[in-house]
Amino acid sequence: MLLLMKAASLFCLLGLPLAAAAQKLPAHDPPVTYYIGVAQAPLYRSAADTAGRPAKYLPSQTAAVVVGRLSPRWVVVELGGFRYLTPADKLTDYDPADADALPVDPRTHRIAYEGVVRVPGATQAELLARATAWVAQAYPLANAVVDPGPAAGQLVIKGTQIATFRTAYAGVARGSYAGVVQHTLTLYTKDGAYKYVLTDLVHDAAGTPNLRSGGPLEQEKASLFGYAGLGSRASWDELKTTATRDVRRLLATLQTAMTLGAAPAAPNPGEF
């Protein structure tokens, strides 16, 4: 009997590392909060468990903090100090690029999205005309002021996009209007290529009741509600994530318009 008890104790001790290992799902990314869609999301303790029953479920509309990616299909969420796998398609607005470091200009220390795109065969006049038409579609409700640049073939756009974050109504998190995020987008065109520089991202509460302007998005935290608690930090992080995701999508539509939907040629940093 004593031998059996010792053997059982040894088995339990050996089993502990295995149980712990099952919880060590990758957490390579900074935490980003998403929300479960209309259907509940299954949570699995490991990749091997995904063939069976989930350990638990996250109800619809609840928050899910993503801390890693196992594959394009599966993401790692953290809940109650443990990590679980859940399908990425159960999350609303999931974009793996949300976890990437923001592009910061080493000279200005401002967030700056910048790139050169070659469009073989297109003249400067054609590219400028495409850019002008794109602005009219990309910024509805007169949400942009467009000026010619200091040189021929340039446009300077002072744009605004609606800012949002989630707030709880009757226990359900719903998207809320949170003012606007302003930016400056400068477009340079020449025969066969264009360059974009989008920077000066600044949050303005725009008169939203009980909300303060956060200011430049480079800030790690901002007191949106007049206090610096965790709730304020979480809302600021979410606002920044949504705003920069909108910027990436805006620039994707720019590329489609400038290249007429064709795959652009490989960029050449020395173009401009």
TrEMBL record:
<feature type="domain" description="DUF4468">
    <location>
        <begin position="113"/>
        <end position="202"/>
    </location>
</feature>
<dbReference type="InterPro" id="IPR027823">
    <property type="entry name" value="DUF4468"/>
</dbReference>
<protein>
    <submittedName>
        <fullName>DUF4468 domain-containing protein</fullName>
    </submittedName>
</protein>
<dbReference type="Pfam" id="PF14730">
    <property type="entry name" value="DUF4468"/>
</dbReference>
<keyword id="KW-0732">Signal</keyword>
<feature type="signal peptide">
    <location>
        <begin position="1"/>
        <end position="21"/>
    </location>
</feature>
